[in-house]
Structures
1.
Amino acid sequence: MKKISAIFGAFFLSLFFFSSTAFSWGSATHAYIDDQIMKKKGLRNPNEMYGAMAPDIFNYLIDVPFQKDLSMQKHHQFQKVWEQAKTGTAKALAYGFVSHNDSWGADSTAHHAGMTYGLTEGYITAKAKELSTIAPLPANLGIPPDAALELYHNFVESGVDLLVKRLDPSIGDKMIASALRRSREFPYLLVRAYSADLAPYFGSPGEAAKAITAAEKEFRKMTILYGQALLQEEGTALNLVSEQMADLSEKFLGAYNVPAPPKEQTIQLIAFYITVAMTLCESDYAEEIAETQNYVARQMSFSATAY
């Protein structure tokens, strides 16, 4: 258990910034979408918002060979969580969890079929390609194309999260509240849904259960920290996000055998690219998010998860 916790503690910040398999909406955007869908549900709403962010709990394991399989479990086998939800709060968590999905949920508009932009490839994917064209990474850094693509996606995701602050300046508070108030049922809900399927990766259902609960514990902490960053005014929030990404860049680039630039230079570069991404998105992100929200609400009404 100590080994598992150490692994999760070392890599967890990258959950929010270096998503190596699913180029999707950021955590704040997922929280905002679900808050808008179910904002009249009272006490259930924080649990739903937390559930909406939670499918990304394994995205941060950059150098683990089976990371993609773990992520795909959460993004495509999402119905398993709903099937295990029995109480009202568990169903709220599961509703949010399902709404995130990559098949027909919120993530599908991010990197498969955008609602207003990137209609054939997803909003985030299309904006990342546009960013790579108008602001290519410095050639002297030696970053290979596949790593650069991940970086561009993450710059756009972070930029949209910061723009969401303009739609709802209290989104950071809501993320913190959702993590603090999430039902104690949630890690056990995930264990019941996934421990058997993940057992081959961790050695046994018991070890898989430990890994899941450790991941969720760290996810909860980092949701609070990310929410605190988003509580700040936009310039400060941008700097905090850039600093956090810079802290992770050495590990991320190391996976590609690329040395990271000096930290201060890295922070400046990251802040620059996020700022450019925000400029690319500021004219249409609100409409894309609103259309995604409406789309997800319709999709959820057709599923068995209405509650």
2.
Amino acid sequence: MAEPHLEELAIWARQLAEGLAQQGYPVKQLLTQVGLSERDLQGKDARTSFAKNAAFFELAAETTENINLGLEFAQSRDTRDAGLLGYVGLNSPTVKDALKNLSRYRRVMSDALEINVDELEKMGTVYWWRRGLAPARCRQYMEFGTTNLIRGLREVTKRRVKPVRVTFAHPRNARIKEFERFFG
């Protein structure tokens, strides 16, 4: 069961809703199905529940019949849209600093987001997860977030950052080549 108090910025849900509307999908109806309204997404500092954001991404993937919606949507985002967190990332002198800053300031973006960089210096490992939902209920949102992180690091460094390994807690057994191609 989701923790109802976990909130985050609505920017990605708003951008997804805008993209779906441009493609002719019934956005108002989709938002209503997950307990959101267009008004919930208005304003650059609008916040919604993590569970509703995740549900909206899952419903969007189902509606568009695109099991890689999170992966694909993240590749077209702009780091500056992440507000303060994007600014901190873009102005970090190194990838290590960007990851440490992301961990330090993550609550600006989301109450559900957890980032552990304890093994970053020694092992080069970063753990990233969201509290409050079972992995299967936030699959698209986790794939979006991870893809968005790597895309943002590439933007910051002007290099094709390639993680050694990316794993998800949820099952993924279709269209894996697209993930391999993006992550390298």
